[in-house]
Structures are given as structure tokens and as C-alpha cells.
């Protein structure tokens, strides 16, 4: 093993987070910049390049000190081509050639993947997943995202949609989702979904909060049981803003999970809370660059 470093980039609609890390996943430097989405997001890639180069100068480092850069981004990512399209919260309306541009600007290799996938990789590698080869991750924020690591490999599917747990159907003919179908988990267990469930249940009022958490836990437990029954991972890790409800939420989700799984899965797949917080993305992103060490 070399003593070269990794760079992780976690690109979000508000900020881009960066980290310089060892190959063992230890963070040595961290920083962030604002994401400038003006002018159809045309400043984002140049800003990332400039920030990386600036920090290399700052720490008296050169591209030769690094194996490469790993990056997580919103949108539909083509990992093989190094492109992203459909990242609407970044104001990117056309295909972005991130690998081509960032490699040219930094003189380092770049590996990219979807932001939910890299958060899954981070939690699997250095977080609640304990580096197990089989881990599923679901993130509950303004939407519901996810990522699945099976036998040590991140699953992408034929069109990059593997692990889209937010679109597992939990209520046939239920709430309409932005994806166009009805009853997706995202419409019940995201931050906006929780508000929607609360609004619908407010008519019953008494002990509303308890009822809302129970209803959301039911849908989440049902969806995760389907994941467990299909994949039998060691851990299903819950992260994101909604998961701030913590152990209270986890226990209720686990109760429904156990109700909907068959015995072998119930006894071997465990529900856990994410523990890396907002560094999961940069850690997971950096881990993408490890592939360059094998080349």
C-alpha cells in the first residue's frame, strides 16, 4: 500500500465539501465552499477545480501525492463516462462532463457517483456499516435516497437506478410522487412526506405526533423489510435529517421490519442509525478513488 492520499468531494446544492484523506479513510484536512448555481451552474466545476488546486498549494502538495479524486454529485450519473445530467438543484440543464473537465484542471484522475451512493459507501466503510460486504443505506431528507453495497460492490443497475429506495411502493394508489407514480416511500417518509402524513392525520388530532411517527415507521419498516427479504444485508443503515428522531424512530421501524421479514432475515439483518453525519459523503466519495490504486 502506498502512502498517497485521496481527495473526496461531496457536491450539494448549497455547499461543496472537500476532504484530503489517507487510504485508510482518515480525514486529514476538510473545507467547503459555497455552490454557485448562477448562470446555469457554469461556475460550479471551475470553482471545484480552483479550490482543489488552491488547497494543494496551501499544503505544499502536488497531484503526484494523490491517487485521485472521488466525487459525489446529485443527478443521474454515468460513472463510466464521468458525466452527470438532471441535477436540477445545481441548475445544470445539460450534460456535465465532470471527469473530462476536472481531470484537465487538476491533473488527477476522477471517479464520480451519485450523492446517495457515496453516502452509502461512506457509512459502509467507516460508519455504521462496519465495512461489511453487504450493507444497504437509506437517507431521509427532503427526498428519500439510498444505496446498496452487495458483496463489496456498489450496485448501479442497468440505468443507474439500483438502490432508489425512495421509489419502492408502500401504498398502492397512495400519494402522487414527483416521479409520476403513486405511493412511493418518498411521499411518506421524506421530510415533506412526514408533513403530508401529519396534515392528513390532523383531523384525528389526539396524540398526533405519536401516530405520525408510527405511520411513517410502518411505511419505512415495510420498505426496508422488502430490501431485507431480497438482499439480506448485514445492516440497513438509516441516515439523513428525518433520522434525527434517533433511537425512538429506529426502534419503531425495527418493530415493523421484524413483522414483515421472514425469520432468517429477521435474525440476521439489523437496522442501524448512521453515525458519520455530514462527512459520510466526502468519505464515501474519496473511497471511489481507491480503484485507481488497483490500476
Q: Which key phrases capture this entry?
A:
single chain, 295 residues, alpha/beta, Nucleotidyltransferase, domain 5, 2 domains, five-stranded mixed beta sheet, 10 helices, globular
Please characterize this protein's 3D structure.
- The protein is of the alpha/beta class and 295 residues long.
- The chain has two domains: 5-118 and 279-294, ATPase, nucleotide binding domain (Nucleotidyltransferase, domain 5, 2-Layer Sandwich), CATH 3.30.420.40; 131-274, 2-Layer Sandwich (Nucleotidyltransferase, domain 5).
- It is built from ten helices and twelve strands.
- The chain has helices at 38-41, 44-58, 98-106, 115-126, 186-189, 191-201, 208-231, 246-260, 263-268, 280-288, and strands spanning 5-11, 15-21, 27-34, 66-73, 76-78, 83-85, 110-114, 135-140, 144-150, 153-154, 235-239, 270-273.
- A five-stranded mixed β-sheet has the order 3-2-1-4-7.
- Strand 9 and strand 10 form a beta hairpin.
- Helix 2 (44-58) runs parallel beside helix 3 and helix 4 (115-126) packs across helix 10.
